[in-house]
Design brief:
Helices cover 46% and strands 15% of the residues. By secondary structure, it is of the alpha/beta class. The protein binds ligand ME8. Ligand ME8 binds next to strand 2, helix 1, helix 7 and strand 13.
């Protein structure tokens, strides 16, 4: 059993509504997973839901619902979004599943037995309204606490803490000596800055039952449940451990029969707001449990809508499902990857979305494929002419660029390369003017060449686009009369389209929408 390429996303809080930001992250991971599979690499893609915590407990209680039943209902909505996005995730982890809870308990038991988790009395300022302890940093300049915290009282509470102090230096050394561990680079520098300028405090990993009961009970003290981050981060390993991963055998849980070898994860795709948890706490948890660290954290930025934070109260949340229902899943997948590089923040505008749809999908890709195949149908009865290599060198260069961008997880740049081929091919149509060549019988051989080059570029586009726009890629292949799925990257090589092959029926890929 060889180790698979293992990619994960953050697990979303079940209590919120799925929005553009969640969908974006999942599409990023899906494109990378599909690309690796298309290169013949055995790949496993995990996503899922973070279901414990105070908000779920409170909302379920307010609705008079059992929290598990409430989570089950929301999980359907979230899994529905994964299906709408056409994600190729191989599993879907929910932190309320037995396989996950067993793993968390096994890790906690080991760390507690080894003295890495200990109990301590904490005294601090507590906001009953927000149900949280406050620190000196929360005070306003005049010394008071902000009104949002309501009445703030001094409170003593016992909790369990995970020792972090001894871990600071090796983690700094590790991140410094492992350049690809956090990408992009400026996020890596942010983590190093944090680690070098702050002394790590031991991490509180529990909540007393009186304050929180919707969580995983501590295996060594039934009066407490596990606090959310220790619970949530473990998902990346709990699923493989339950599927028989040999690296995680010390924590094997109710094993299913898959016999998977996944750990360590190759990429955790996460948003910038949860970087510290993934780059500091998660590596320390793993090291303490004597487990290898993930190979890469790929950290994306945040989407805004019209230059403002998306929020339910402002009513400016972009609902991916609505966009998909109106424009199609590929238009959504295309826009988010084309518009935003992995790293900086992005801004969704409906105008920007429509402009890219019209210029790049309908007029760029759609027009190229439609006119290329329609001309082949009209002038050659849909039969592929003899092989020509006029554009093969240029195309092969673009194929190589696209691959190397994808290997570096530069998805936006990869789409940029693919679109340079589309632009080049559209120019080629204008320059060679096949509609004029068709009128002159002496130009028949030249027309053959042009039509071959265009049809072959369409085929190659199908292969290159597959990780990004899977439906469109399949649609191009079916219009070309090719029965296979364009999911093998090696097929992006000039000359795959056989002379004499009869193509299918051309149809617009992206219907133009009235303005
Ligand atoms: O943080 N733009 O869950 P979550 C881009 N359960 N990405 C965004 C975004 C936006 N506007 N809003 C959220 C959690 N995200 C935890 C994670 S992982 C072990 C536990 C991203 O539902 C966010 O950055 O608040 C995160 O990566 C993911 O969506 C889930 O956010």
């Amino acid at each position: 059993m060889s180790k698979r390429f293992y990619i994960t996303t953050a697990i979303d809080y079940v209590n919120g509504e799925p929005h553009l930001g969640h969908a974006y992250e999942k599409v990023v991971a899906d494109v990378i997973a599909r690309f690796h599979r298309s290169r013949g690499v055995e790949t496993f893609f995990l996503t899922g839901l973070d279901e414990h915590g105070q908000k779920v407990q409170q909302t379920a209680a307010a609705k008079g619902r059992d929290p598990q039943a409430y989570c089950d209902e929301l999980a359907d909505i979230w899994q529905g979004m994964a299906a709408k996005l056409e994600l190729t995730n191989d599993d879907f982890i929910r932190t309320t599943q037995a396989r996950h809870k067993e793993f968390v308990k096994a890790v906690l038991s080991k760390l507690h037995a080894e003295g890495q988790i200990y109990k301590k009395l904490y005294e601090g300022f507590y906001s009953t309204k927000e149900e949280t302890f406050l620190t000196e940093k929360d005070r306003l300049p005049d010394g008071s606490f902000p009104a949002m915290y309501g009445e703030v009282t001094k409170l003593q509470e016992e909790n369990y803490y995970f020792r972090l102090k001894n871990h600071q230096q090796w983690l700094i050394d590790y991140i410094e000596s492992t350049p690809g561990f956090v990408e992009p680079d400026y996020r890596r520098n942010e983590v190093l800055g944090f680690l070098k300028n702050n002394e790590l405090e031991d991490l509180c990993i529990s909540r007393p039952l009186a304050r929180l009961n919707w969580g995983i009970p501590l295996p060594f003290d039934p009066g407490f449940v596990t606090y959310v981050w220790f619970d949530a981060l473990s998902n990346y390993a709990s699923m493989p451990a339950s599927a028989g991963d040999p690296v995680l055998k010390d924590f094997a849980t109710s094993a299913d029969s898959r016999g998977l070898s996944l750990w360590p994860a190759d990429i955790h795709v996460i948003g910038k707001d949860i970087l510290k948890f993934h780059a500091v706490y998660w590596p320390i948890m793993l090291r303490a449990a004597n487990l290898p660290l993930p190979r890469k954290l790929l950290v994306h930025g945040w989407w805004q809508k019209d230059g403002e934070k998306m929020s339910k109260s402002t009513g400016n949340v972009v609902d991916p499902i609505k966009v998909i229902e109106e424009w199609g899943v590929d238009a959504f997948r295309f826009y988010v990857i084309r518009e935003l590089d992995i790293g900086p923040d992005g801004n969704w505008t409906d105008g920007g979305f429509k402009a890219r749809y019209s210029a790049e999908l309908a007029n760029g890709l759609g027009n190229l494929v439609n006119r290329s195949l329609s001309m082949l149908k009209r002038y050659r009865n849909g039969v592929v002419p003899p092989l020509s290599r006029e554009l093969s060198a240029e195309t092969e260069k673009i194929i190589a660029d696209t691959r190397s961008h994808l290997e570096a997880n530069h998805l936006q740049a990869a789409l940029g390369s693919i679109w340079s081929l589309i632009t080049r091919a559209n120019q080629y149509v204008n320059q060679t003017a096949p509609f004029k060549l068709a009128k002159d019988p002496a130009q028949a051989a030249r027309l053959d060449e042009v039509l071959y080059n265009l049809a072959e570029i369409c085929r190659i586009l199908g292969v290159l686009l597959w990780p990004f726009l899977p439906r469109t890629a399949c649609n191009i292949y079916s219009q070309l009369g090719l029965a296979e799925t364009p999911n093998q990257n090696k097929d992006a090589t000039w000359g795959g389209l056989a002379p004499g092959h009869a193509i299918g029926t051309p149809a617009p890929l992206f219907p133009r929408k009235d303005p």
